[in-house]
Specification:
The chain is α+β, with helices and mostly antiparallel strands and 337 residues long. The chain has 2 domains: 141 residues, Chitobiase, domain 2 (2-Layer Sandwich); 162 residues, Protein Transport Mog1p, Chain A, CATH 3.40.1000. The chain has a 7-stranded antiparallel β-sheet, sandwiched between helices. Strands 4-1-5-7-6 form a 5-stranded mixed β-sheet, with helices on both faces. A two-stranded antiparallel ribbon has the order 2-3. It is elongated.
């Protein structure tokens, strides 16, 4: 009986080992905003400028930062076996091309129409392959109509990825309820944020995990009541400067060059926003800087005008990812009952 169990167990282990050895995909690697573009070399020379222009659009952070980086890989060339395992693959071509057929073979449902399709785990686990399927002997004019939609698709997925990662700790609903009940406004923060009421109408929310020398995300909320008739950009900047001087742990100078101004309706309330950079003064012992978003919202039902200041310190890091998180928290703001 013991011998029989050993034989059966050995056969099971051998079968499992063979199955594991056959599964050579492995885990996908690379950053989620790093795209490997796959097509023939001739086709790449014809369309590379269009791909760079469309997919490597910039976002304003501390500088103009690329949302995505595109790297070309010729199919079956020297580095193909490694680069085809990246998390984000962009495969462009027709059905007759063998690398396209590899993708089609892994689709859950038969793909019968040209256009944009996404297939998962083709060459690696956790991988997304965005396939632009084109007619035979395709050229630049066949690809161009799809590129804007490819960017919109990938950027939307990247933004969802950033938001999901930010809220991985969970949404601090208890804090939102407390703010709404006791202070008349709410924001939905991840649970990793700490907060402090530093004055009657000044609240500081901060995430500096794991080390404030490496990362600080901070949002400060204050308000004026009764609400002024209007607030200009200059008045908003003066208001922020007073807030920084009175309540921030380190001084900040706003960099006016490249500042973006925007007026808009925010859930029925007037809103004014600037996006710019901050820097510590030259004489500061701690040279630092980063992007900021400052927003003023007038809430007529409360007769309050709020100033919400969100700023980031992330030296040496790509900042678009973190700015998506700050924008999401700002968008969760509510002040009406």
């Amino acid at each position: 009986m013991v011998t029989k169990r050993l034989i059966v167990g050995s056969l099971f282990c051998a079968t499992l080992a063979i199955a594991t050895a056959c599964d050579t995909k492995g885990i996908g690697w690379g950053d989620p905003n790093s795209i490997i573009a796959v097509m023939s070399e001739d086709q790449w020379f014809a369309v590379s400028d269009d791909l760079y222009e469309t997919l490597e659009q910039t976002a304003t952070t501390a500088r103009n930062e690329k949302k995505f980086t595109v790297t070309y890989q010729e199919p079956y060339a020297e580095f193909w076996m490694n680069l085809r395992r990246f998390r984000q693959m962009l495969v462009i071509g027709s059905r007759s091309e063998p690398w396209v057929q590899e993708v089609l073979d892994d689709a859950r449902e038969p793909i019968t129409e040209d256009g944009i399709h996404q297939i998962y785990n083709v060459w690696a686990t956790g991988q997304t392959v965005t396939l632009v399927l084109l007619p035979e002997a395709w050229g630049r004019s066949d690809l161009q109509p799809y590129l804007a939609d490819v960017h919109t698709l990938l950027d939307g997925q990247y933004r969802s990825y950033a938001v999901n990662r930010m809220y991985y700790s969970g949404v601090d609903s208890a804090l939102a309820d407390t703010l709404h009940t006791e202070q008349g406004f709410l924001l939905f923060f991840p649970k990793v944020y700490s907060w402090n009421q530093v004055a009657d109408s000044v609240f500081v929310f901060r995430n500096d995990n794991p080390d404030p020398s490496e990362l600080i995300k901070e949002i400060v909320v204050t308000w004026l009541s009764p609400a002024p008739a209007s607030v200009s950009v200059d008045e908003m900047l003066e208001w922020r400067a007073r807030l920084v001087e009175d309540y921030y742990s380190h001084p900040q100078d706003l960099v006016a060059d490249g500042m973006i101004e925007e007026s808009f309706d925010f859930h029925g309330n007037e809103a004014l926003q600037i996006q710019a950079q901050w820097r510590n003064p030259p004489e500061s012992w701690w040279p630092a800087g980063g992007p900021l978003i400052t927003r003023v919202i007038t809430c007529d039902s409360q007769d309050r005008t709020y100033l919400i200041d969100a700023w980031l310190y992330a030296p040496g890091e790509q900042k678009y990812y973190f700015m998506i998180g700050l924008e999401t928290i700002l968008a969760s703001f509510r002040c009406d009952s």
